[in-house]
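2024-03-11 09:14:02 DEBUG pipeline.ingest accepted 1 chain
2024-03-11 09:14:02 DEBUG pipeline.ingest length=204
2024-03-11 09:14:03 DEBUG pipeline.predict start
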Amino acid sequence: MGGSFNPAHGGHRAISLAAREALGLDEVWWLVSPGNPLKPQQGMAPLAARLQYARKIARRAPIRATAIEAELGTRYTVDTLRALTLRYPRHRFLWLMGGDNLQQFGQWKDWRGIARIMPIAVIARPGYTGAVRGSPAANWLRRFVRPAGQSSNWTNWRPPALVHLRFRPDPRSATLLRQGNPLWHREHHGARPRDPLTHRTIPV
């Protein structure tokens, strides 16, 4: 599951654990992005602080927060997923994303290519259902939708394949957290967390 995680919060943790159970995943990786091409850099906390805080939110859970894209040198999801499948050929990956991401999925670089690399699970978010249904990407993906009751069989699916997951709505959001505490990252100023996948220290 990719994102800015600016900051990570309990909502990310809750949907990750729910998706893990529904899909039978070994663990969930949070890909803390060095920079989202579709999001403004203004107000974006340093990568080291975002990773440090994401690891704090994910602790004692089968969730691994990583900034591996910084080492891979990738900015776009399609390039990251290709690199991950090459780097970890014995892993079976599934892409997790929220319904709000599906709404703008058609703006992502080579979004059809993403769908052809690995199965996708879309987690519903309140307020986005209607807009998602009308998006060009959702219309193209509709023919590849699998029943939610078969979600634990995703390793047998041949991409493109997509499943919609619905969990208890969670009102928490990074935007609201930043509005309440725009300097949340100050407590992690100077942090140099070690990435759990690359084992490299993330520079300040």
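2024-03-11 09:14:41 DEBUG pipeline.report The mean pLDDT is 91.
2024-03-11 09:14:41 DEBUG pipeline.predict end
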